[in-house]
Amino acid sequence: MRIGTGFDVHGIAADRKLILGGVEIPCGWGLAGHSDADVPVHALMDAILGAAALGDIGKHFPDTDPEYEGISSLKLLERVTALADAEGYALGNADITVICQRPRLADYIEEMRRNIASSIGVPTDRISVKATTTEKLGFTGRGEGIAAEAVCLLVEKNINDYKML
């Protein structure tokens, strides 16, 4: 078993859609970034890559490459999952926390979980997504950006008696 952590931050952009966990959230603004700036998915990708000792998303999907401009982060998550798979690992579970003062995310959490699980190819009960605020403190509290952190457990695919699989 291997554990990985990930963290991501993107600033607010008035001219973009807000995409979190593959869900378009209507709020009149989005996040700045080369791809769709989906911070919870970016944090999870870094957690998976870290657990497999494969670097980070910047190494695999540089923001200087036009191929990734505007791309869905769920597509990139599929590629990260394939990289971990090639190393002999499968996702045991993942826990993601989205940190923002606004918008409120409670109504979108289940759809985020389903989207992420589908992109990885695991049951939804292996993906946890939570949202929290910083009680109006810091850049997220002031509404200047959104952050996310993730932790994941990768298991060797050849462990047949691992009960989570």
From TrEMBL:
Catalytic activity field: 4-CDP-2-C-methyl-D-erythritol 2-phosphate = 2-C-methyl-D-erythritol 2,4-cyclic diphosphate + CMP
Molecular function in Gene Ontology: 2-C-methyl-D-erythritol 2,4-cyclodiphosphate synthase activity; metal ion binding
Keyword Coiled coil included in the entry's annotation: no
Major enzyme class: lyase
The keyword Lyase belongs to this UniProt entry's keyword annotation: yes
Pfam annotation, one family: YgbB
Gene3D superfamilies in alphabetical order: 2-C-methyl-D-erythritol 2,4-cyclodiphosphate synthase (3.30.1330.50)
Binding-site residues, a divalent metal cation: 8, 10, 42
Enzyme Commission identifier(s): 4.6.1.12
Protein name: 2-C-methyl-D-erythritol 2,4-cyclodiphosphate synthase
Annotated organism of origin: Hornefia porci
Gene: ispF
